[in-house]
Amino acid sequence: MNYDPNYYPYPSRRILQYGARGMVATSQPLAAGAGLDILKRGGNAIDAAIATAAALTVVEPSSNGIGSDAFALVWSEGKLHGLNASGPAPSSASAEAMRRRGHDTMPRFGVEPVTVPGAPAAWAELAERFGRLPLTETLEPAIRYAEEGYPVSPVLAGAWSRALARYSTLEPTGQYRPWLDTFAPNGCAPAAGDMWRSPGHAATLRAIAESNGEAFYRGDLAERIETFITEYDGFLTADDLAAFEPEWVQPISVDYRGYRVWEIPPNGQGLVALIALNILRGFDFDARDEVETFHRQIEAIKLGFADGLKYITDSRAMQVPVEDLLSDAYAEERRRMIGRKALDPVPGTPPSGGTVYLCTGDSEGNMVSFIQSNYMGFGSGVVIPGTGISLQNRGANFSLDPGHDNVLAGGKRTYHTIIPGFLTRGEEPIGPFGVMGGFMQPQGHLQVVANVVDFGLNPQAALDAPRWQWSAGRTVSLEHSVPEHIGLALAARGHDIGWALGSGGFGRGQIVWRHSDDVLVGATEPRADGAVMAW
Which range of residues forms the domain containing residue 245? Predict the structure, then answer.
């Protein structure tokens, strides 16, 4: 990469980190430390990623859990591999069944939007194919944190407190009671520096480790999940869990000014970032902090989302092929729509033809881009009593419109927000990157890639740079550090501009890239409690 490692044009609490034998970057120092410990025990980057991911279910439960989904991009053996470990809707779920229950849209919380969790299967699959150590060793740090406890970090404490305010008002004596018992046993969320432990969580992780993931999908844990879900009239069954297998997929990419940007194919929303980058590569940018740059990036992501929200669903149910959405002809057609004024985004017709992220690297050339999430913070608000298993609510993204591509159906994967990213040049890997945060994620990917490729920022400066976030129509939020004159100029072009008081909604990213053949370079967000651990 052509960047100046000493150039930091934006205020930062962090500096670039370098390492030769291994590196882990994620949003929690304790989880990064768990991954580094595994590297030092003889594990590779894949083992370190598994250890970090499992630890994150304990040390950042506000964003993920044992009941999460996961995706991974793995560079190993000179090739990029993609793993889709997002679970489908239960076999008995359907849009018609939801409408019979009186729902016009998918519920956001409770047992109904719960889909099959994929994270435990992802850990086992990665270990089986690429790992060097057994899960009994890579999950040991997470088990220890759950049993012995750990001090809660500042950003986590804030997210935990907000979640308590949400879930305590839903149904505190019913299906949400186990969440309160697990995460607020004294009626309050832990403050920064308070110790928190979860013995049930530890027991579940130990069962997963000793069975290589089987215990979660078959046997006692699966039966306990089914019993609780059935008690509150949900759809997920032990048979749904037993039928699940993660899927190895071919990553998708676009060329962006000589670099290839890689994403997981649908049902993930990485396609949105690639559509937008494909549009942007037809423009020239003079400087990062000027209105034309912001305007064109915002308009491109709006067009990407318009298509993504229309067409992205389970790959087996997509009506428009990915290659058509990424074709040069379609990119040119969409590019011509971007003028000087903000537009209301609409999907095109192409010609036929609350998440944690981590990345790792080792001295053997292995690199991992890994992401897992419960969605909307703690997810569904459903915790299986005595297990520490907090279940995701990914089904909330399904449509109940029978004419929509992403309509709910049994056994179908929904539009998924979590996306790992990876960058290469020619046949050589540069490395993994990611930005957490729901629908912010493709927008974060676009801005990080542009910061590095278009404007030569080093990885830390690329993460530190002020961000924007499009939400709907012409509505755009600007981080408080965006220069005021840019916000005023965007408003004059028709954007409905809002200024964020804080930066919590603008993503939390990490990067681990190859600085040279023998050295790794890493960066992490100032917007998170994150850390880069190097060896």
Answer: 1-535
